[in-house]
Amino acid sequence: MGFTRLFLFFLLLVLNPSQSYAAENVSVTLYYETLCPYCADFIVNHLANIFQNGLISIVNLRMVPWGNAWLNSDGSFACQHGTDECLINTIEACTITIYPNVNRHFTFIHCVEGLTLQNKHSKWADCFEMSKLGTVPIDCYNSGYGNQIETKYAKETAQLNPPHRFVPWLVVNNKPLAEDYGNFMAYICKAYKGKSPEACRSIRYKTESIGNEKSIPQVCLAEQRRNSTS
Fold first, then answer.
1. Do 80 and 134 meet the contact criterion of CB atoms below 8 Å apart?
2. Number of C-beta neighbours around residue 83 at 10 A
3. Count of other CB atoms within 10 angstroms of residue 127
4. What angle do CA 80, 185, 110 make, to 5 degrees?
5. Closest by alpha carbon to 131, among 114, 156, 154, 153?
6. Distances in Å between the alpha carbon of 131 and those of 50, 61, 106, 211?
7. I need a surface site. Which of 48, 73, 146, 152 has the fewest CB within 10 A?
């Protein structure tokens, strides 16, 4: 009798494998730069939705604030939207490192990018109080440690395969979504192997194509970076 029960138990595991292990979260990495208006719009008006609809529970979200910046021969940074962007990229990098909980650092990033959309990015420091975080990231920046973090992000971004062509550049389970990043929630739901979250039931793949011609999203192009600094 004991052998029969044991056999039935293993048979159930084979027939219903979802009960034998927890499905892995979907890896989502956003490569962006802080003063690109299209990155800001995506973060504030689209990516933030996964915190509201519960999809964040099946996602491992990484934010990489480097984008179309580059390293000069002397090791200094240059950014597509000027020195303010280099500063805020580094502040956000420090915040991500010091406050690794995604809910905490995303709240700060969401605030800063909201200011970017309002052309008020110079008030970024106000977001520490709004997000109830300490100002340790400013010390991180002033100490030079933020530059070390950004250098790592620079290398990671440079090693993307295929290379990023623009930002926002979104990668889901190692697959770049390229121009289709607006459908990122549909890709997350498709990639998740566990029980489908409630939010996925109402998410459908969306297309904004006209006829057979697919629309091109608004982006900050990598090829234009050296001509865009101010």
1. no
2. 12
3. 21
4. 45
5. 114
6. 18, 18, 9, 44
7. 73
Measure the CA–CA gap between 123 and 70, rounded to whole angstroms. 25
The span from the CA of 29 to the CA of 64, in Å, is 7
What secondary structure letter does DSSP report for 210? B
Closest CA to 32 of 217, 167, 174: 167
The C-alpha atoms of residue 117 and residue 44 are separated, in whole angstroms, by 9
Q: Give the β-pairing of 26-32 and 169-172.
A: antiparallel
Phi, psi of 70 (to 5 degrees): -150, 160
Q: How many CA atoms lie within 13 A of 166 on its CB side?
A: 17
Q: Angle at CA 170, nearest 5°, toward 169 and 174? A: 120
Which pLDDT tens digit goes with each residue over 128-185? Answer: 999 999 999 999 999 999 999 999 999 999 999 999 999 999 999 999 999 999 999 9
Global pTM reads 0.86
Amino acid at 220: C
Spatial separation of the C-alpha atoms in residues 93 and 100, rounded to whole Å:
10
Closest CA to 69 of 105, 38, 31, 114: 31
State whether the Cα torsion 40-46-52-57 is positive or negative. negative
pLDDT digit string, tens, across residues 172-184: 999 999 999 999 9
